[in-house]
Design a protein that fits this description.
It holds the Pfam family Pkinase. It catalyses: L-seryl-[protein] + ATP = O-phospho-L-seryl-[protein] + ADP + H(+); L-threonyl-[protein] + ATP = O-phospho-L-threonyl-[protein] + ADP + H(+). It comes from Actinophytocola xanthii. The chain is of the alpha+beta class. It has 3 domains: 91 residues, Phosphorylase Kinase, domain 1 (2-Layer Sandwich); 239 residues, Transferase(Phosphotransferase), domain 1, CATH 1.10.510.10; 109 residues, no CATH class. 24% of the residues lie in helices and 19% in strands.
């Protein structure tokens, strides 16, 4: 138990607990050697012996320490063998710059909406901070309001700092999580991450645009208490239109970035920041370099003098409303495939909150505060409504082609005819003829990992209109197993 006044590593005097996160606690402390105030993130004692959590903690320390940018909270020190007098032994800790300010999440919780000029100022600074990571080959993978610190200045402006690089990953690095699970918070995750592909700089840009949408609208673009549903919405649905009082220039830059195809987005934090700076200066919205803006994102006709510039016109026509849109029919070469998580594997993180909480995986989805306080504004993952109806005495039938185990205690053999707790019964024929998106979601809810492929082993362009032809599972399947799902694209109406 950490308490005020304790001395960490014979150097850092703890003074005030700032926040408690999924991985540990964050304290304000005094560096007794250099006589300065710092923020100290201390890993939970029960996680210090977990190789995976230590790996994530080291990742945050090394990644952040390698990034020298005023928009990124600096790392001062790191250790794994510190002792605390009258406290835990062998404590892993990370000492960071103490940022005076509030997480954007706390500001949104208090103010609900943020005006367009301040929103664009936050987006521009956050984009420039992301560029420092992107230039070094890192992708943050968890951009959200809780990881963006905002400090007001005397002249009425703000200073933005990006925090929590705990799940940042270099393009050639090994996975940070078990089974190659995709990282990120469902409400801000990019479609390609939700589809099981490696995150890229454009994925961070999408997440930052979601943050911008939330600032301007006062709510996230996709609302559900179930993280599985939210991830599917990011894949399939167009966000609802921003409120009519949002100025056209702010509307244009956010809508232009919330496109499903990463090739149609700004390719890095710096490119996105430059686009934001352009519209703040009253200039036309630049198109992503080397790419064409998606038609649905355009706020006006292209400039005749520069086809790569987009004139910011009146608010664009309303998009399709949530729940009725679909993943656009765009053929793009996605980034490196994660073969263990080819389909919407990000939702496993949500299910892990319910099924694997004992292993501490909740911390991976909830994230940490990066050294500062963070209000509990995230919507709970939910998912209990999918439990079987069979009760404690027998296997529960989910009604979607799977039967869940009867809850047999580990080590006790099941009675004849009963399904062990770590198994589900799958009837592959029950899924044939259904949309791949629905089949994937049902298999996920049953605790399985669908690997959905269209003809030729490629990802379906639109999971709503790719009709399942076969599911390679029949009978009892162990929870967590991959289940190949094959589908055929239907000819849809031209868009």
């Amino acid at each position: 138990m950490l308490t005020s006044g304790q001395l960490l590593a014979e150097r850092y005097r703890l003074s005030r607990r700032i926040a408690v996160g999924g991985m540990g606690e964050v304290w304000e402390a005094a560096d007794t050697r250099l006589d300065r105030r710092v923020a100290v993130k201390v890993l939970k004692p029960e996680l210090c012996g977990d190789a995976e959590f230590l790996h994530r903690f080291r990742t945050e320390a090394r990644t952040t320490a390698s990034l020298n940018h005023p928009g990124i909270a600096a790392v001062h020190d790191y250790g794994e063998t510190a002792s605390i007098v009258d406290g835990p032994k062998d404590t892993a800790y990370l000492v960071m710059e103490l940022v005076e300010g509030d997480p954007l999440a706390a500001i949104l919780a208090k103010e609900r909406r943020i005006n367009a000029e301040r929103t664009l100022e936050i987006l521009e600074q956050a984009g420039n901070a992301l560029q420092a990571a992107h230039e070094r080959g890192y992708v943050h993978r968890d951009v959200k309001p809780g990881n963006i610190m905002v400090t007001p200045t005397p002249d009425g402006r703000v200073v933005v700092k990006l925090t929590d690089f705990g799940i940042a990953k270099a393009a050639d690095a090994a996975p940070v999580t078990r089974s190659g699970m995709v990282m990120g918070t469902a409400h801000y995750i990019a479609p390609e991450q939700a589809l099981g592909h490696e995150a890229e700089p454009a994925s961070d840009v999408y997440s930052l645009a979601v943050v911008g949408y939330e600032c301007l609208a006062g709510h996230r673009p996709f609302l559900s208490e179930n993280a599985v549903t939210v991830a599917m919405m990011h894949i399939r649905d167009m966000p609802p239109p921003l409120p009519p009082d949002v100025p056209p220039h702010a509307r244009a830059v956010v809508e232009a970035t919330l496109v499903k195809d990463p090739a149609q987005r700004y390719g890095s934090g710096g490119e996105f920041a430059a686009a934001v700076a352009a519209v703040r200066a009253g200039l036309p919205l630049p198109a992503p370099s080397g790419r064409a803006l998606a038609p649905a994102s355009m706020g006006g006709p292209a400039s005749a003098s520069n086809p790569q510039m987009l004139a910011v016109g009146p608010p664009s026509a309303p998009h399709q409303t949530t729940g009725t849109g679909s993943f656009p029919h765009t053929s793009y070469a996605p980034p490196r495939r994660n073969r263990t998580a080819l389909w919407v594997l990000v939702v496993v993180l949500s299910l892990a909150l319910l099924t694997l909480a004992g292993f501490g995986l909740a911390a991976l989805l909830d994230g940490d505060t990066g050294g500062q306080s963070q209000p509990q504004t995230s919507t709970p993952a939910g998912g209990n409504e999918e439990s079987g109806e069979g009760g404690a005495g027998g296997a529960g039938q989910s009604g979607d082609g799977t039967s869940v185990g009867n809850g047999t205690e580990p080590g006790n053999p099941p009675m004849p005819g009963e399904v062990p707790a770590d198994m589900v019964v799958v009837d592959g024929d029950d899924y044939v003829g259904q949309p791949a998106s629905e089949v994937a979601e049902r298999l996920f809810r049953a605790g399985l990992e669908p690997v959905v492929e269209a003809e030729g082993g490629r990802l379906p362009q639109d999971p709503d209109t790719c009709i399942v032809t076969s599911v390679e599972a029949d009978g009892r399947v162990r929870v967590g197993s991959e289940v190949p799902v094959h589908c055929v694209e239907e000819e849809g109406p031209s868009r």
